[in-house]
Design goal:
By secondary structure, this protein is mostly helical. It has one helix and two strands. The protein has a two-stranded antiparallel sheet with strand order 1-2. The longest helix is centred in the first third of the chain and has 24 residues. The chain is rod-shaped.
Length: 56
């Protein structure tokens, strides 16, 4: 391995570590159940606008 290949290898590793740290730091947590995504709301029938449960 010559000097040029070694410099390219080190530069590639440095760039990949920087990119991984950006992905780790910029990722945002999502809020479960936000905007009604966790529960199903009944749209028709006598139980309209109530949240359906799995217990029957």
């Amino acid at each position: 391995m010559n000097k040029f290949e070694f410099k390219n290898l080190v530069k590639g590793l440095k760039d990949s570590l920087k990119e991984k740290s950006f992905f780790k730091d910029l990722r945002k947590e999502v809020e479960t159940g936000a905007n009604g995504t966790q529960d199903y709301v009944v749209k028709k029938g006598i139980n309209k606008d109530s949240i359906a449960t799995t217990k029957q």
